[in-house]
């Protein structure tokens, strides 16, 4: 089992950024990429995973229990946090691919200044 403490992730709305690339004689093409905020979060997770010695590249199916500590009292959809969190942990080498996550539970666990996430990752 791996236990991790990570920063509060950006929502899906802030993780991705869409821009329109104009092409002569065409309406343009929408290009979606990871935002600067998303890249900064992924890099921070990378170093925290190394620091916590959790870069195991797990290969089996996984079960996650995620405790979300929100940064303030605003109403939030905690389901909106999973994609950026899962992608960042994959890039950091916790597991090979986020398709390995077969069971996860997200629990709203209170308010902490700045927010944070604690995770338990178990092979099943």
Automatic annotation (TrEMBL):
SUPFAM superfamilies listed in its UniProt record: Holliday junction resolvase RusA
GO BP annotations, alphabetical order: DNA recombination; DNA repair
UniProt EC number: 3.1.21.10
Highest taxon in the source lineage: Bacteria
A molecular-function term among this protein's GO annotations: crossover junction DNA endonuclease activity
Cofactor(s) annotated in UniProt: Mg(2+)
Record keyword Electron transport present: no
One Pfam assignment: RusA
Enzyme class, spelled out: hydrolase
Keywords: DNA damage, DNA recombination, DNA repair, Endonuclease, Hydrolase, Magnesium, Metal-binding, Nuclease
Claim: Hydrolase is one of the keywords in the record: yes
UniProt catalytic activity: Endonucleolytic cleavage at a junction such as a reciprocal single-stranded crossover between two homologous DNA duplexes (Holliday junction)
Segment forming the signal sequence: none
UniProt family annotation: Belongs to the rusA family.
Function: Endonuclease that resolves Holliday junction intermediates made during homologous genetic recombination and DNA repair. Exhibits sequence and structure-selective cleavage of four-way DNA junctions, where it introduces symmetrical nicks in two strands of the same polarity at the 5' side of dinucleotides. Corrects the defects in genetic recombination and DNA repair associated with inactivation of ruvAB or ruvC.
Record's subunit section: Homodimer.
Protein name, as recorded: Crossover junction endodeoxyribonuclease rusA
